[in-house]
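Field: COMPLEX_INPUT
Field: COMPONENT_COUNT = two
Field: RESIDUE_TOTAL = 845
Field: MODE = joint
Values follow.
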Amino acid sequence: MDPKIVNRLKEIVGPQWVTDDPWELCAYARAWSYEPHRRPDVVVNPGSTQDVVEIMKLANETLTPVNVRAGGTTNTGAAIPRQGGITLDMNRMSPPIELDEGSQSFTAQAGVTTYRAIKELAARGWKIPWRPEYGNAVTLAAWVNFNGMGVGSSVYGRVGDFLLGLEVVLPTGEVVHTGSSHFGKAGKFTRYQGTGPDLTGLFLESLGTMGVITEVYMRMYRIPEAMGQIDFAFDDEDSIQEAIRLLVEANISYAICVTDEQMCMTNRLPKAPGKWLLTMIAEGWKEEVDFRLRKGRELCIKAGGKEFPPDRPRAQWGSAASISLPYEPSRRQVSCGGFHPIHKTKEIFNAYNEVGEKYGLQRGMGWWTCGNYCNQFPIYVYNEETDMDMIFKAIKEVHTRWIEAGYVPDYPGPFPNMTPYIERSYLELYRKVKKALDPNNIMHRGMQPDVED
Amino acid sequence: MDYPKLNQYHLKIWNDQACGVCQRGPWTPYPPRGPAPDRLCPSWEHYRRISYSAQGWIQAARNLLEGKLEMEPRFVEYVYACNLCGSCCNSRCVINGDQVNIIKAWREDLVNLGLGPTDPWKKDAAGIEKEGNRFGRKKAERGKWAEGMNIPNSGELVYFVGCVASYREPALAKATAKVLKASGTPFAILGAEELCCGNPLNQSGQMKAFTEVAKKNVEALKKAGAKTVVTSCACCYHNLAFEYPKVLGQLPFKVIHQTELLARLVSEGKLKPKKSISGTLTYHDPCHLVRLGGKIIKEPRAVLQAIPGVKLVEMEAKGKVAQCCGRNPVEQPELSMTTGNNRVKDAQVAGANTIVTACSFCDWSLKRSAKNLGADIKVVDINQILVESLGI
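Field: COMPLEX_OUTPUT
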């Protein structure tokens, strides 16, 4: 990188907040991802929205790629630069969150972690809908960039469903506020308004390709009086699929989470009492929770489930770590996932399982529901000796079969690259919007969907 | 260049998942294990870059072992930027508690290759070599604080005083001795025969010098007839109890921290705190008493709770997950200040007007930070509180 750019960055944020030391860049070549390691040319820690504005103007003027990251707990590869350039580490922007109890909303800067938000809200009796999958390090802005989902999505939906707006620095350096706060004296109380289409959606799930999110406005909810869960085992794919269908139709669950017995074996969990394990969680007033769990129990039994014996350990849902992180040395995992309609559950599972069997891979499958559909997240395990080409071949094969089954991916690439499967007119519209916002294609350059054929 | 010590950990280094738990805490920070504190790594808190966390050092180590990086002076400084508080060792990850060991192994390789340590650690080593203490103060003055106290130089229980209490904060040493005397417990000190415990040498990878110091101290303690060695400094405790056996094998005496002894003396009725202590106290757990081998959590609290009038409040990060005090005010002054400042703020959030600790370095770092912040908060050693309550 041109030293003049590095010097200019030091002038903008202060020299201590810029590094191009190769030993420091190594950390930024990685994320919680199996992607190849790629270093940025320089790492910058902006301390304010104005810092980001100046950095983006400089990057745009010098056509320097910019990659944004914080906790780096994503397996999308979005935290890893594809073509060097500047990596913005947003962790410095983390003052206390601002609560607006009148609007039942809060504002957090880009470096505020979901865990910190949970704690700060809890101190006032509020909460965000659920605990994000990836623990302490994930930031709210990253959560928006991925449009996260998890335990609790059954009733609350994905992040976009409780997002009220954003402050974004565009790739060309302008600051935009989306949601109701962009109008007159309105506060941050709704994502939608009568001033045109929903522009928050341009940045939601964009994996950082459309701009730098510097502030997040989000709805908060009162902590419920009670929560409870029931756990059932199922012996075949038809009955688990039916149980999910019945529970979703009944609309009584805070969360519906499923794992297969392979996951228990792979992650050394207690032996599964059936081929499939289902947890239903309910929240609300105590009487309400009792009622919902009673109904859930009836529906699971109707579908052919067997309730866990009382002494059997329950799943600690609330973090993917509880089901998908191998804590042993010499084992790693790749996870690949997506979304499928409930009636495709059996087909999605069989594809993952047969591919795993074919390549002799240790594996595990889990999913949870979001409204009327499921988010599946299978893992395949590998170690230092594993032929990675074989792993990539297996992943490609499972995705190909899922595409045939009618799933959508949870991120667009890089492996496999989902661009060829996107309807042409949709892709063209995406490219026009991307070009309008980021004329020099500096944001997360190289991320899918491909901006050129 | 070869890095044989570091290379012993190559599988763990390769397997690091880069998941961030060493910066911000566990993936499951919620009950039943949690709730966990939001802060974890002091270096990350200070530098705000993931490169300054176990994840950063481990990724750099991997690149070094794979031949993608070469050591150079500023890279060496980077390897010495961690304060080895061990907070990341609590994070439930594949490195499985070896984060500190990996960085120490790397530093040892650097010393063996003639590339390390960095200047402040060399200065410590020179002081220890010449005068037996990290400050380079006169060896003969080590026991000066005890003048007039009639403490023998031999006995079954030996109080290992440490450099900070011997030279910089003699009030700590005096308070410790007064409390032991008040309990009627016979004890000795080594006086000028005591050397630095070797903590700066061990931290900086100067393992040959560390081993030499360890041997001399063990010899002196044996000669003094020690069956039990008690320390008032958590760093001395850590080195004597856990690091000496690594280089010398099993020691011919038992090593305890003074809070263990105090708790026993209080429960046996040999120490009876009488005078009421007003104010709200919080206890800061020294890293070396609660992790990296130490498990001394209940004892100091039991002692404080035995003092009349004491209102003890807890900081969120306590026990095994306690935040560091800053630890190395001389070798890493800026990091130490930020870390100490954060800890003083923790105490204020807890509503305390006094921080009690049980380590000379914690006492030093926290006092420095409290002064820097202009905080209306007192920092005292547990022995000093006891002296006040015992009225001695």
